Amino acid sequence: MNYIGSKYSLLDFLTTTISNVTGYNENTPFVFADLFAGTGIVGSEYRKRGCKVISNDIQYYSYVLNKHYIENDMEIDLNLFDTFNNLNGVEGFIYNNYSAGSGSGRNYFTDNNSKKCDAIRCRLEQMLLDNRISRGTYFFYLASLINSIDKYANTASVYGAFLKHIKKSAQKDFVLEPLPIISGIKGEVYNEDINKLIRSVSGDVLYLDPPYNARQYCSNYHVLETIARYDDPILKGVTGLRDSTQQKSKYCSSRTVSDVFEDLIANADFKYIFLSYNNEGLMSLDTIEQIMSKYGQYQQFTKEYRRFKADKDENRNISANTTTEYLHCLIKG
């Protein structure tokens, strides 16, 4: 997925640095926690490496993706892809609220693709209710739906707005495609406020990748949240935002970020803590160092990388194509 803050391009930097600091390598099984998990890129990598992964994100669509990547450890019937892809479209919630043809005025998907998404989503839910599929299979197909439909979205990069005219990639006929199935130790996946969860989990390595700025993920990915939950929410405004009051992150506010971050570090029962943060974040580098240094041995590592497209689109005054990623490290003492 084209996702804000994705660490896909930084995986080598992250895994190499973490290995060098901890001494843990691919032959060392340990408990790895990825508690701002997003699309699960980092947690999935450590499951592949033989770790038990604890995954968490306050967004439900992220929870769905990671329920598959981190917890699925069973044989999955891939023959259902033919069934889902051959369904006739239905005029459900996605069509009625996120396609222009329904009269909603929202141009997130073509009429046909939104109807197809509704058909798959309804059939999948009914199959679970009828006990025709396991919960593991359900999360596999739902995660695959979230990942697949995102490729056909008529947006610039996020769901904060839709495009007036249908772009080429969004015009294509939607096809449900499978996500990779990862073998490894079965992990644990949560959908909770991280500052509450941190008090009840523990392990060896804690990886933190919080939001860096005031951009709330619940607003930028609200359509995927609705597809994941399929809970008929009341939508507001031109873009059809759902009520996400309970999902707004205190890490996206300059007033609260330092306090919640220190609370998180103070209550983390992990020997090694790594924080990904860039040089344009709400917390200054000095603030991060000051907080982390209170709890043990601190050091930092850096890597330049290409800026996410949405940053350049939304912030016209930004001219640089690269930014600096900082990996802050704490060996808790």
Description:
This protein is α/β, with parallel strands linked by helices. It has one domain (8-271). Helices cover 38% and strands 15% of the residues. The chain contains 14 helices and seven strands. The chain has helices at residues 11-22, 41-48, 60-71, 80-85, 93-98, 111-129, 135-150, 168-171, 194-197, 217-220, 222-229, 257-267, 285-293, 309-314; strands at 31-34, 52-56, 188-190, 202-208, 269-278, 296-306, 322-332. Strand 1 (31-34), helix 2 and strand 2 (52-56) form a beta-alpha-beta unit. Helix 6 packs antiparallel against helix 7 (135-150). It is globular. The two termini are 38 Å apart. The model has no long low-confidence stretch (mean pLDDT 94).
**If you average the pLDDT, what whole number results?**
94
End-to-end distance:
38 Å
**Element string (H = helix, E = strand):** HEHEHHHHHHEHEHHHEHEHE
**In one word, what is the shape?**
globular
* Approximate strand percentage: 15-25%
Number of strands: 7
Share in helix: 25-40%
Q: How many separate domains make up the residues?
A: 1
Given the helix and strand composition, which structural class is it? alpha/beta
Low-confidence stretches: none
With helices defined by DSSP (H or I, 4 residues minimum), what is the helix count? 14
- Spatially, the strands of the biggest sheet line up as 3-2-1-4-5-7-6
Main beta-sheet strand count, sense and barrel state: 7 strands, mixed
Rg, Å, rounded: 20 Å
